[in-house]
């Protein structure tokens, strides 16, 4: 289904492309098809770039490159520099945002994160909102995938 959605996005009208590619990414991520996901993320990066959303495009294309590397495919994504994405993406997050994001990625609830860091639940929510925006993710599971697969290196 994810591959079909990618093809529909490529062949269909431009106004449907973003929706179809986003749906393809979600389906491929859910079913665990890493190579298909890499290709769909590359398509999504192109959609962002065409819309003038260069920051989102760069992050999405880095994710695509990382997924492609996990599959042993180096040449799939050509729209991003070969520099390590971990340093660049980490630089986009403040120290506080990174701490909160890492705890969220490891499965802690907002309340648990607040207790562990001695901050309010509202502060945790604000940090996560900014993290989601900066890393162009929409869900905690997406955040976990980015942080836990090594795209963002907190070291």
Strand and helix map with partners:
Blueprint: H1 2-11, H2 14-31, H3 34-50, H4 54-70, H5 85-91, H6 95-105, H7 110-117, H8 121-135, H9 140-148
Helix pairs in contact: 1-2, 2-3, 3-4, 6-8, 6-9, 7-8
Summarize the model shown.
The protein has nine helices and no strands. The protein has 155 residues and is mainly α. The longest helix is centred in the first third of the chain and has 18 residues, at 14-31.
Structural classification:
mainly alpha
Order of helices and strands: HHHHHHHHH
Question: What is the radius of gyration?
Answer: 16 Å
Q: Which sheet architecture does the biggest sheet show?
A: none
Q: Give the helix proportion (percent range).
A: over 70%
**Quaternary organization:** single chain
> Helical region count?
9
| Number of beta-strand segments | 0
Note the beta-strand portion.
under 5%
The unreliable regions are 78-88, 150-155
């Amino acid at each position: 289904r994810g591959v079909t959605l990618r093809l529909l996005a490529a062949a269909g009208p431009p106004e449907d492309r973003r929706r179809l590619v986003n749906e393809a990414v979600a389906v491929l991520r859910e079913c665990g098809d890493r190579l298909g996901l890499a290709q769909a993320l590359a398509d999504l990066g192109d959609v962002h770039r065409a819309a003038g959303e260069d920051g989102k495009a760069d992050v999405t294309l880095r994710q695509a490159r990382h997924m492609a590397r996990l599959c042993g495919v180096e040449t799939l994504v050509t729209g991003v520099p070969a520099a390590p994405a971990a340093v660049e993406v980490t630089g986009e997050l403040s120290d506080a945002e990174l701490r909160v994001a890492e705890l969220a990625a490891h499965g802690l609830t907002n309340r648990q994160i607040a207790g562990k860091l001695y901050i309010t639940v509202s502060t945790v929510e604000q940090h996560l909102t900014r993290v989601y925006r900066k890393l162009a993710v929409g869900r905690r599971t997406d955040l976990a995938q980015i942080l836990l697969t090594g795209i963002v290196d907190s070291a």
